[in-house]
Specification:
mainly alpha, 5 helices, elongated
Length: 155
Amino acid sequence: MSQNLIALNLTPDDIAAIDAALATLESRLAGLVELSPEERRSLAKMGDKSEAFCRQTLIVLDQNRQIVPAGLDLAGAESDLQQLDLLRPRLARLRRLKTRAEDTEMALGSDVLSAALEGYALAKVFGKGAGLDALKDVVSVRFSRRRKPEEGATA
């Protein structure tokens, strides 16, 4: 019994529309940054508890601008918070879509692998004289159990 987790049918029009939507997203989100692993590690991160602290602190500072030193970019911090609030719901939608796309990719690959394994089993049984010997030879590489050469071993 063949596995069929998904039957996706993306038309050329669907692909064109998806590519156009992605291009729009990439262009509209051109201001997004990409941090290096070192930058990610070194940054102070705002979690749930510190977010409440940050929001309250910005409110207090806004209400008492006379205590804000010139070197503190309060307007920039308030703008960053507003942009964060605008971006988060869209990121949540993108994450859900990304998860569904990855699950779909996995299901499609699993369906293909399942069918190929069934076909390979049939080729092993019925391949003699049916012109499938070449296929058996090519796909048998997938099942070879060769050991990787050990480090320090000579060729």
